[in-house]
Amino acid sequence: MDTGLLIALLNPTIALALGAAFLVLWFYQRHRPYLAVLAASYCLSAPGFLLQYFTLPVGIVTTKLISNICFTIAACCLSSAIVARYGRRVPYIGIGIMTGGGLATFAWFMFVQPDLTWRVLGMNFGFGALSLLVAAELRTVRNNGPVEKILFVLSLLSGLNFIARTLIVVIAHGPFPSYDGFYGSSYWTTALLSHALLSLLIALCLFTAAALDVLKALKAETHTDPLSGLLNRRGFEERAAFLLDQCGRAGFPVALVLADLDHFKALNDQHGHEAGDRVIADFAAKLRFATGTRGAAGRIGGEEFAVLLPLSDLAAARLFAEAIRTFYSAGAVDGLPPGTRVTASFGVAARTGTEGLAPLMRRADEALYKAKRTGRDSVRLSYERPETAFVPEAVSVG
Fold first, then answer.
1. Rounded CA gap, 341 and 18, in Å?
2. Which of 49, 55, 42 is nearest to 67 (CA)?
3. What is the pTM of this model?
4. Using CA atoms, how far apart are residues 259 and 304, in angstroms rounded to an integer?
């Protein structure tokens, strides 16, 4: 087997292997459709490269057109999958204009005014513009991690590869009058090798991103209560400790609200555990809606909940608790008999100084106990300040 054939088979082999790998990933993670799109992208690029080297019985013109259509669809799939992976809106119009323009240029210089050099320039400029579009989308992704930054750089390099490399080689060694000798030219050799390298690097980044998605999902599962959808005790304590540290550094106020469903055991005994689960889920949904993204809400016990509110003093936290209490006690829970009223009691404490989570929770829990002891369905506040260590003064004896 000659060297030219080995090089020609390099990209299809890599593309099929990567496509199969992404397909396997998608099979186990069906909730991430971008993996299936990536698999389609790499699988489609394989016949594109093969048809550059081998000619179908329909003739060389039709074969080259089919090859470039495969490349175009593969590029559209790859770019849209990368953008979708990061939660960005896929710019279908921009993708269509750039790839469609390149394919239209190819068709014009294939059928209307045959010119191989302009076909090469048209397709490469279209793919280069698409790579730069992906780089622009990645540039606006918030909280870019190392994987996103590497993908951004690779997208820029890919754009330069399609545009700058093509121009340099065409100027230095072009134009190309026909396909005779084209696949032994410096343009084709550099195109195959650069594409193989960039494909591998981009795929490795995307594999790493998929692995990080799995790790993040596993971490979320270990920190989330499955019934309520809120943070569990461990997750709440970690998130609350982080927020307390952040607010402490910035000098912002923080308040803690503890809530406990009233007469929950009696409700469970009377209506069954399934009804009790619905009550917990309903209260958690209201708590999550009220908290939004500014604070941390968690289920820290059977029917006990906690909300840490950054940028809130005691008065603001009290208003928050009163709003939840009023809203919840006035509503009905699906699955319970009409007229069944479910209420909750609340304890509120505001952070003083550099008070840690444990003493803050203790004070809020004492306020919650007062609310339970004095009739329930109420909000009680903790005005107590954390204890300070007593240091006796030196006494002189003379």
1. 58
2. 49
3. 0.66
4. 6
